[in-house]
Design goal:
It catalyses: L-glutamine + H2O = L-glutamate + NH4(+). Belongs to the glutaminase family. With about 525 residues, the chain is of the alpha+beta class. It is built from 24 helices and 12 strands. It has 3 domains: about 20-80, no CATH class; about 90-385, Beta-lactamase, CATH 3.40.710.10; about 410-530, Serine Threonine Protein Phosphatase 5, Tetratricopeptide repeat (Alpha Horseshoe). The chain has helices at about 20-35, 60-70, 70-80, 90-100, 115-120, 150-165, 165-170, 200-210, 220-230, 240-245, 250-260, 270-280, 285-300, 315-325, 330-340, 375-385, 410-425, 430-435, 450-460, 460-470, 485-490, 495-515, 525, 530, and strands spanning about 45-50, 55, 110, 125-130, 135-140, 145, 235, 285, 345, 350-355, 360-365, 365-370. The radius of gyration is 30 Å and the shape is elongated.
């Protein structure tokens, strides 16, 4: 086998010319890898010198170039900040703050109907997220394995639709919220389970997978789930499986009831289907691997870690629709109203949350509320949506108080400055009125520290100056980079009428400043009727 040796020759032809060798690229790649993959053990922090890199093992060269060759699109996205969450470190800090706030919740009770659930401490609390382009963040007890329980229901439904299609699956199960508890002996008016997110529907879906053997064996179903988790931790708790069988009288009752109503597909064995259902509920994940499952759903069925196309777009769309309407037990309506995102909970304390086209989140905290949802998990979801505009029906176009982490830092401000300055330059009072009613800061400055009042005063638009001073109550004492006030610009361009207006307004503004502190005074609210 021939070994290729890289010989580096550095010829200095000009003091301003530098030839990029493998060593140069190795340095940049190493720094980047250490930033995005701080847990890589065999990479040492490099130091750049004039001719070589200190602290980079020679064996890293091939490793680095393999990384670049296979992930060049990912690296280009990173260097250009083209990720779905451009300022991910800032976003992660906000997630940590929400986590710490929610951690103080002490309500709820750990499920104890089987010993394996009751053994978990109520203090355990973890959150992991994975974006559709592979950015990840975890905080808390995110490496502790726990059983999926009912969180497996959307996954098995997605597998069934992926293999058989929507029409065949929904011959045997409905798609409407039931209005009853998840373990009720209840069918719809066509004698079908109401939806795949209740126990009856999940048992029928299990029978469909079992009888058709789309995945050949039970082990292959496990492999399917592992693909959704990016080949990260997916285990099985045999103790939980045995306990589920021993305490599953309600599920056996549901099974016999559906057998009497002929709900199962031809050739299905009810006992085998229940056994398979209990096995699926006993699959173990961690918050970290569970977040990748959620991200696979958020990414249209493509695992963001491996890039493998695991689920069809049809399966993902149907699954998210049912999670949104039926995924949170008796809390589904309130979840859709307050959070507005697809989610599925389990009695283990897990909540699988999907933000379509953005990220997947797995929350886990064992204490449950009265309907079986994690208390901390619900609170986290609500806080997340109250801070960021992730709700399905949040307005993404107009100015709102919520943050949009999908936009680069400063993107909104840059657009606002441009629009505001152009409106002032062109004398468009109607546009300025719209901006003020949108809660835009009318004192925004451009790169020369000039405000809209500077522009309007220099251009001689007295109607704009009047609107900004009388209605918006902007600050007339803002200096630009040359130390000029708006009144100075008006004087320079000999707009005498505007000079008089601004001098009179300066006196009024000083009096208002003396009477009111900045925190107590809100001129926009005082004059909202005038704007309208």
């Amino acid at each position: 086998m021939q070994t290729r040796t890289h010989t580096h020759t550095h010829t200095q032809t000009d003091t301003h010319t530098h030839t990029h060798t493998d060593t140069d690229y190795m340095y940049y790649v190493t720094v980047f890898l250490l930033q995005i993959c701080p847990n890589i053990q065999h990479l040492s922090r490099p130091r750049r010198t004039s001719d070589h890199v200190v602290g980079v093992p020679i064996a890293l060269c091939c490793f680095s170039f393999r990384c670049v060759g296979g992930n060049i699109v990912l690296l280009i996205q990173a260097f250009r900040k083209k990720f779905i969450i451009p300022e991910f470190d800032v976003f992660a800090q906000k997630i940590n703050e929400i986590y710490n706030t929610v951690q103080h919740q002490t309500d709820g009770k750990v499920a104890d109907y089987i010993p394996q659930l009751a053994k978990f401490s109520p203090e355990l609390w973890g959150v992991s997220l994975c974006t559709v382009d592979g950015q990840r963040h975890s905080v808390g007890d995110t490496k502790q394995p726990f059983c999926l329980q009912s969180c497996v229901k959307p996954l098995q439904y997605a597998i069934a639709v992926h293999e058989a299609g929507t029409e065949k699956v929904h011959r045997y199960v409905g798609m409407e919220p039931s209005g009853f508890k998840f373990n009720m002996l209840s069918l719809d008016d066509e004698d079908k389970p109401h939806n795949p997110m209740v126990n009856a529907g999940a048992i029928v879906i299990s029978s469909l997978i079992k009888v058709n053997r789309w995945t050949c064996t039970d082990c292959c179903v496990m492999e399917f789930v592992k693909k959704m988790a990016g080949q990260e931790y997916v285990g099985f708790s045999n103790a939980t499986f045995q306990s589920e069988k021993e305490t599953g009288d309600r599920n056996f009752a549901i099974g016999y009831y559906m057998k009497e109503k002929k709900c199962f597909p031809p050739g299905a064995d009810m006992i085998d289907s229940l056994d398979f259902y209990f096995q699926l509920c006993s699959i173990e994940v961690t918050c970290e691997s569970g977040s990748i499952m959620a991200a696979t759903l958020a990414n249209g069925g493509i695992c963001p870690i491996t890039g493998e196309h695991v689920l069809s777009a049809e399966a993902v769309r149907n699954t998210l629709s049912l999670m949104h309407s039926c995924g949170m037990y008796d809390f589904s309506g309130q979840m859709a109203f307050h959070v507005g995102l697809p989610a599925k909970s389990g009695v283990s304390g897990a909540i699988l949350l999907v933000i379509p086209n953005v990220m997947g989140v797995m929350c886990w905290s064992p204490p449950l509320d009265r309907v079986g949802n994690s208390v901390r998990g619900i609170h986290f979801c609500e806080e997340l949506v109250s801070l960021f505009n992730f709700h399905n029906y949040d307005n993404l176009r107009h100015f709102v108080k919520k943050q949009d982490p999908r936009r680069p830092d400063g993107d909104d401000r840059n657009k606002s400055v441009f629009n505001l300055m152009f409106a002032a330059y062109s004398g468009d009072v109607s546009a300025l009125r719209r901006f003020a009613l949108s809660n835009m800061d009318m004192d925004l400055k451009d790169y020369d520290s000039r405000t809209a009042l500077h522009i309007a005063a220099a251009e001689g638009h007295i109607d704009v100056v009047t609107f900004l001073t009388e209605t918006c109550k902007v600050d007339p004492f803002v200096e630009d980079r040359w130390g000029n006030l708006p009144v100075d610009d008006a004087m320079q361009f000999r707009h005498d009428e505007i000079v008089k207006v601004l001098k009179d307004y300066q006196q009024v503004f000083r009096q208002q400043e003396m009477q009111h502190t900045k925190a107590e005074h809100s001129p926009k609210l005082d004059t909202i009727e005038g704007m309208v």
